[in-house]
Write a structure and sequence with these properties.
By secondary structure, the protein is mostly helical. It has one domain. Helices cover 90% and strands 0% of the residues. It contains three helices and no strands. Helix 1 runs antiparallel to helix 2 and helix 1 crosses helix 3. It is elongated.
């Protein structure tokens, strides 16, 4: 069960990071863009915390970095 949860969280992390990355080049400008990207980065941290509960803090960080590199 936790393996599928890890896969689900990693997919969410990839999608969240992709959305934040798209926010850098999207049509929004100024403060709206900053708030959007900040919200996505905060979501990434919560997803990392959820992952850490399953695999431990160090492994969660490794997996987060790998997921981001995949984007």
């Amino acid at each position: 069960m936790s393996e599928s949860e890890v896969r689900r969280l990693l997919k969410e992390i990839e999608l969240t990071y992709q959305a934040a990355k798209n926010g850098l080049t999207g049509l929004a400008a100024g403060m709206a863009r900053h708030e959007f990207i900040s919200a996505k980065m905060e979501k990434l941290d919560k997803q990392r915390e959820s992952l850490a509960h399953i695999v431990g803090a160090d492994r969660a960080m490794e997996l987060l970095v790998q997921a981001i590199e995949n984007v």
